[in-house]
Amino acid sequence: MNTSTHPxxxxxxxxxxxxxxxxxxxxxxxxxxxxxxxWDVLVNYTRxxxxxxxxxxxxxxxxxxxxxxxxxxxxxxxxxxxxxxLDAAVASGRLAPLVGLVNNAGVVDLPERVDEMxxxxxxRMFRINVFGSFWCAREALKRMSTRHxxxxxxxxNLSSAASRLGSPGQYVDYAASKGAIDxxxxxxxxxxxxxGVRVNAVRPGIIETDIHAxxxxxxxxxxxxxxxxxxxxxxxxxxxxxIVWLLSEEASYTTGSVLDVTGGR
Length: 265
Ligand code: NAP
Known about the structure:
Layout: E1 16-19, H1 25-36, E2 40-45, H2 49-61, E3 66-70, H3 76-91, E4 98-103, H4 119-144, E5 153-158, H5 162-165, H6 172-192, E6 197-204, H7 211-214, H8 220-224, H9 236-247, E7 258-261
Parallel strand pairs: 1-2, 1-4, 2-3, 4-5, 5-6, 6-7
């Protein structure tokens, strides 16, 4: 057996991973590493089609199949349309059946106190970070769980160290949305544990990606590095390694766990 391609003997040799928000950052790193571990990947994005296509090209260069699908996970109808495209690709043999989901897509917003936050801001934050993860997981379960006649699978949710720290004066809304993800992970894991589906979360700390620019502080990772016990920000690849491990059969007895990848913070 070629263990470098398929190190997970109990997973089906042909299997698809859906990664939301896969065009850059942690999602792109997960996609590229998963392809090296034998996964076909559905590469989801919202705005940057060229970046998503570049990730798909790397997947195909590693001998795996990739399908690029634009969908805003904060819009239930778009999530349903994404899964319809996945089903069509599986039915026609362009992708393997769905066995993994990484609920990675997530947003921050500009620094604000709670007494300044608009309803529009809060609604967007929770629709993308929380509702999107629920909708994507619900549809994944229908395609993975033994309750629905399938062979099982694995879901990894992206939380954040913010769910422990609260992010006061910066984005308490974001921290609260990730707190919801921690509880969602625990509850869903226990709900489907006997149905062949494992559910875990990774809780990154300060990771060097573009998310900090979208929160108005492009050099936030460098600014915060001295607060990290390891004295540096993490990389998207370091988070991806934890996620891909949780997806693998090496984590076969791990469910309901929230794994900190924070350099000790
Ligand atoms: P990022 O660099 O900002 O990338 C976000 C990705 O999500 C992009 O591919 C983006 O696609 C996509 N996306 C954004 N909104 C979307 C939506 N509504 N539907 C579908 N896709 C959407 O973020 P990141 O730093 O890699 O973060 C990934 C996850 O890790 C997030 O859940 C984040 O909260 C979490 N996290 C990050 C850090 C950190 O320090 N970086 C720390 C803790 C937790 P387009 O560009 O095409 O729109």
